[in-house]
Automatic annotation (TrEMBL), chain A:
Belongs to the transketolase family. It is an enzyme of class 2 (transferase). Keywords: Thiamine pyrophosphate, Transferase. The keyword Transmembrane does not apply. It comes from the Bacteria. PANTHER family: TRANSKETOLASE N-TERMINAL SECTION-RELATED (PTHR47514:SF1). The keyword Transmembrane does not apply. InterPro entries: THDP-binding, Transketolase_N. Residues 41-278 form the Transketolase N-terminal domain. It comes from Runella defluvii. Its cofactor is thiamine diphosphate. This is Transketolase. Its EC number is 2.2.1.1.
TrEMBL record, chain B:
It comes from the Bacteria. Keywords: Thiamine pyrophosphate, Transferase. GO terms for molecular function: transketolase activity. Its cofactor is thiamine diphosphate. InterPro entries: PDH/Transketolase (IPR051157), THDP-binding (IPR029061), Transketo_C/PFOR_II (IPR009014), Transketolase-like_Pyr-bd (IPR005475), Transketolase_C (IPR033248). This is Transketolase. It comes from Runella defluvii.
Amino acid sequence: MEATKDVTLTLHNSLLTDDSSLITHHLSLKSREYRRNILKYIYKAKAGHTGGSLSCIDILNVLYNEVLNVSPETFTSPDRDRYIQSKGHCVEALFVVLADKGFFPESDLETLCKYQSHYIGHPTRKVNGVEQNTGALGHGLPMSAGVALAAKMDNRDYRVFTLMGDGELPEGSNWEAALTAAHYKLDNLCAIVDLNGLQITGPTKDVCNTEPLDKKFESFGWAVRHVDGNDVVALKEAFDALPFEKGKPSVMIAHTVKGKGVSFMENELKWHHGVPSEEQYKIAMQELSPAP
Amino acid sequence: MGNELIQAPLAGTGAANQDVFSETLQALAATDRNIVVVTSDSRGSGKLVPFGKKYPAQIVEVGIAEQNLVGMAAGLASAGKKVFAVSPACFLTARALEQIKNDVAYSNNPVKLIGISAGVSYGALGSTHHSLHDFAVLRAIHNMTIVVPADSFETTQAVQQVAASEQPYYLRFGKKPMPLLDETGETTFQIGKGRVIRRGSDVAIIANGETVYPALQAAQKLATENGIEATVVSMHTIKPLDEKLLSELALECKAILTVEEHSVNGGLGEACASWLLKNRYHKPFDILGIPDEYTVTGSQVEILNHYGISESGITSRVKTLLNTLT
């Protein structure tokens, strides 16, 4: 395990060579490691939002490893970049990335969803690295808009990112904030929609159709870009292009696959918060082998 | 506790508490550029137009969108701003309750929620515009201090104290001009500590906000006409409740009446009743507030008079309560 980490570190350092294939390799390894850990801790806890965590993990991977100017050392700095996870139920994805970035020991996740643990089924600030307590949907964007506005008021350069699920888009508070973010020209704000197309009841388009989503955001005054949300290279390119338009908030419509990375979980509704059996867990980990 | 009186003025009018709030905030903003007001098309009723003109960089307008008002206020506060989120109490504490619960209280973002034109201040505009639920819902939310100043002194003090604090608060103001309760300046104001306006040992009248003044009027009438001496307390902080003072009142007075411009369910009265009963103070006790019914229509004064939240209504309720002793 230690040897593996050394290899990854070497790979990470070699990014300085600007070799895009190395970046891709490094990020791909990270995604696999994160997926393995998501499943590992959900399996141990016998609880968690498996499908959504697997759909959004590549986004968090690129954010925390390539985009966000934040670390355990800078987490209290007023100039740090902020990440607020609006789709709080996919907390397992956030926790494995925060552990990997050194915000807390990975062994803490052994207590996931256990009595008196801070590592519960939604993000809370009791966990180092978490910006806001989320979980009720439709809250990330308004709070992020507030933080982004504070940056503008204080002439600070930090940026604010929020990850929303496509299922939470009908919450009206999102659209209140969408109006305000455009009104105040918050081009330091980036919303990422994890468009995996499924929510607990069924396909998002059948529950409450939000298409055409790009046109909706555009008409609200946002700059929009579609991206393959499970392609780390495409994600990195999209994040590198921020803001998509000066003077406008940016939204990245990230097309993802719910349950991505495990064949029998992909696009299967039951894995919204399904927990793998022992056999399913073994098969899933086999598919995600070898361990990086 | 003897029958010593702190003489209070019974004539004349002062400023409305929500007007005093905006003036105090403007004074604070003069020396603190981190003070930010967030409004939802409510700067007019909040008397914040002068603030906006004087400090345009310190006022954020979100339009009529209370959920976003509170969510953004939480974000601003988390980034170091001293945020006052101002909106009519009826909308702020109902429409945006989930944002208050999660974004402010649970996430511990030190937003100062300012509910204006509270209670039945909007009178004939009807129940959509009344806030008779705000104490009840906010009392059940952890990490929320609830303060309801009674006059300009308490308002100024409360605004200054919450501005200097890094905790969430809910401050509730009405728009009726309120006389100063204590012109002697002998009483002090501290959040979490009830303010004794008048002392007497027959009955304790515990009120808050705009109901403290009629309680004081009633106390002076009871003394003059009936020889009944009442203690009058401005229990401006409902949560945390001043338990020490409650205990003193229960020991020293024969009966207790609470008065509030709120539903009789879940407000100041029930907070006091719960504590007193749990601590085995079994006194004649009554809660005067807005009953659980389709609220009568009319102006604020007419509504309050209808339900006895007035000098004569309180006087009468005290007499009834004391009659249970004989």
